[in-house]
């Protein structure tokens, strides 16, 4: 399934597969994310690769108060490989 992202209230809701092709397509749309975004909702994401993780980490850095909701297939393994915590921040 093609990746998608939409604003739903205070959440960015992602869907589909967050891979390299999806990141290239979604990146322009994500340049104007509202600063008051409170959640990155990944519950409808089917899979994520390292490019998708990089996108999420960048968004999380720009939105430090945003909670990450959901753990799609591949995310926990990538978090462990890159030493990221559940909030997608570098673990101490």
Strand order of the largest sheet: 1-2-3-4
N-to-C order of helices and strands: EEHEHEH
Rg over CA atoms, rounded to whole Å, is 12 Å
Q: Count the DSSP helices.
A: 3
CATH topology: Transcription Regulator spoIIAA
- List unreliable stretches of 5+ residues: none
Distance between the termini: 35 Å
CATH class: Alpha Beta
Derived structural class: alpha/beta
Total domains: 1
What is the CATH H-level superfamily?
STAS domain
Percent in helix: 25-40%
Query: Can you summarize the main beta sheet?
Result: 4 strands, mixed
Into which percentage range does the β-strand content fall? 25-35%
Précis, in short:
With 92 residues, this protein is α/β, with parallel strands linked by helices. 29% of the residues lie in helices and 28% in strands.
Record the SSE blueprint:
Layout: E1 4-8, E2 11-18, H1 20-26, E3 39-48, H2 50-62, E4 67-69, H3 75-81
Parallel strand pairs: 2-3, 3-4
Antiparallel strand pairs: 1-2
What does this structure look like?
- With 92 residues, the chain is α/β, with parallel strands linked by helices.
- It contains three helices and four strands, in the order E-E-H-E-H-E-H.
- It has a single domain, classed as Transcription Regulator spoIIAA, CATH 3.30.750.
- 29% of the residues lie in helices and 28% in strands.
- A four-stranded mixed β-sheet has the order 1-2-3-4.
- Strand 3, helix 2 and strand 4 form a beta-alpha-beta unit.
- The chain is globular, with a radius of gyration of 12 Å.
- The N and C termini lie far apart (35 Å).
